[in-house]
């Protein structure tokens, strides 16, 4: 059986909180949109001026209980200067929507979590973006293993100049990081 990502919330809580504090340290006001908010563990102990969390699970934190993908297009991103995307896997579809959103303000900080390995299926959005939809089925592991590379390539394609992240490798490649909308 192929290993699948362990869907454990916040396996690296201290590291994730650290990167969020780093990301926002120069902001005068902190207005957070948390797209996969869970139990709000990451932001509970960080001072914010505004916090709006969304999670599909009903029994977790103080959130809008919804599928983020169903409500994303109705959110006015200009109301926030921090967008947290602590999803399982790599949410290429949402990053693409964020990078191309006409309302998002310059200076908005996007905090990301990437978790992958050669067995985790890469999203269709990445296949479309990098034009390998028709080859993927031949050697999926080859493309899956490059998912993180594709993510950074996508950021470069949308003129993101700098990212800050740290990487962990166990059964999965994990990157926790952030970048700023130019
Ligand atoms: C890694 S956890 C996030 C933990 C969160 N950062 C916290 O502080 O507790 C990922 C979360 O995504 C939620 N989730 C998974 N699919 C979702 C979806 N389509 N829409 C909204 N939430 C989703 C899960 O319920 C889970 O709470």
Structure notes:
The structure is a single chain. This protein is an alpha/beta fold and about 180 residues long. The protein has a domain of about 120 residues: 3-Layer(aba) Sandwich (Rossmann fold). It is built from 7 helices and 7 strands. β6 and β7 form a beta hairpin. The N terminus is likely disordered. It binds S-adenosylmethionine. S-adenosylmethionine binds next to α2, β2 and α3.
Q: Judging by the overall fold, what is the CATH architecture of one domain? A: 3-Layer(aba) Sandwich
By CATH, the topology of one domain is: Rossmann fold
The shape, in one word, is globular
Q: Helix and strand succession?
A: HEHEEHEHEHHHEE
Approximate strand percentage: 15-25%
Q: Helix proportion of residues, in percent?
A: 25-40%
The CATH superfamily label of one domain reads Vaccinia Virus protein VP39
Q: Count the strands?
A: 7
Sheet/helix structural class: alpha/beta
- Mean pLDDT, rounded to whole units? 93
């Amino acid at each position: 059986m192929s290993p699948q990502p362990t869907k454990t919330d916040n396996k690296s809580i201290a590291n994730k909180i650290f990167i969020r504090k780093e990301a926002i340290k120069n902001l005068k006001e902190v207005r957070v949109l948390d797209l996969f908010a869970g139990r709000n563990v990451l932001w509970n102990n960080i001072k914010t001026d505004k916090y709006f969390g969304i999670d599909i699970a009903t029994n977790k934190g103080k959130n809008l209980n919804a599928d983020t993908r169903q409500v994303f297009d109705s959110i006015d991103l200009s109301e926030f200067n921090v967008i947290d995307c602590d999803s399982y896997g790599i949410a290429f579809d949402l990053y693409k929507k964020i990078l191309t959103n006409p309302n998002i303000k310059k200076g908005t900080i996007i905090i990301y979590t990437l978790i992958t390995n050669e067995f985790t299926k890469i999203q269709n959005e990445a296949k479309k973006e990098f034009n390998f939809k028709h080859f993927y089925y031949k050697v999926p592991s080859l493309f899956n293993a490059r998912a993180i590379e594709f993510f950074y390539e996508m950021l470069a394609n949308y003129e993101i100049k700098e990212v800050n992240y740290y990487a962990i490798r166990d059964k999965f490649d994990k990157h926790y990081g952030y970048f700023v909308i130019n």
